[in-house]
Amino acid sequence: xxxxxxxxxxxxxxxxxxxxxxxxxxxxxxxxxxxxxxxxxxxxxxxxxxxxxxxxxxxxxxxxxxxxxxxxxxxxxxxxxxxxxxxxxxxxxxxxxxxxxxxxxxxxxxxxxxxxxxxxxxxxxxxxxxxxxxxxxxxxxxxxxxxxxxxxxxxxxxxxxxxxxxxxxxxxxxxxxxxxxxxxxxxxxxxxxxxxxxxxxxxxxxxxxxxxxxxxxxxxxxxxxxxxxxxxxxxxxxxxxxxxxxxxxxxxxxxxxxxxxxxxxxx
Length: 267
Ligand code: ARG
Fold this sequence. Notes:
Elements: H1 2-26, E1 43-48, E2 51-52, E3 56-58, E4 64-65, H2 67-79, E5 82-87, H3 93-99, E6 104-105, H4 113-116, E7 119-121, E8 126-128, E9 130-135, E10 151-154, H5 158-167, E11 174-177, H6 180-189, E12 194-198, H7 199-208, E13 214-217, E14 225-227, E15 230-232, H8 236-251, H9 254-263
Parallel strand pairs: 1-5, 1-6, 10-11, 10-12
Antiparallel strand pairs: 2-3, 3-4, 6-15, 7-15, 8-14, 9-12, 9-13
The chain binds arginine.
């Protein structure tokens, strides 16, 4: 009887093993959650001088928002990397990139030959030009009219460059500010006669500050500018990813959707 019991037990055990084995064979592929976690995507630190609406600014919650931000977020999503935006004052922004504190810069940065010496730029992503802001009753009609006047600019911008060229390197009439909004506030206060800055920013400010009593003056003498996203000189790997993402968002209409949100449909 003992033997019979053992036999039965053996048969049962064998059956269980077979069942277990076949069950294992039929089991579905392990769920993705059980797979080893993929290496987390690299998070690139993006520097931006967030006092430049509508390209980059801080909202009431302190979040960095704007056209440039959405363009870089869309690029990153396409190219498969992650980004973290860090508010970085314009003065020193290029240095931060060079020193490694930032991997990318998006800050309505005009691609210039001089800057190309010390950093690499993506393909252009936005066309711009300088624009003059003056009080509504000003007689200024051209850029040359600014020559005898006090003119506000943001230090180290292309606006600073053209105004310094017109008024002269040693002119004390070039009033340099650490941000473009500060220069425009000074125009409102009467401390300067004009401000020269990127058209998109000047237009946005004038449109949103009716109380300032400003008007804008454009001049065909201003050379066309193009914005680029900057990487450290020689960072070809990241630059290629950025350009690939930029191409993709231009091709699938998402660039146009972001453009339309901030500036209306593209002509
Ligand atoms: N486009 C101009 C330049 O490159 C001004 C850019 C200033 N950008 C900013 N976020 N403050 O010089």
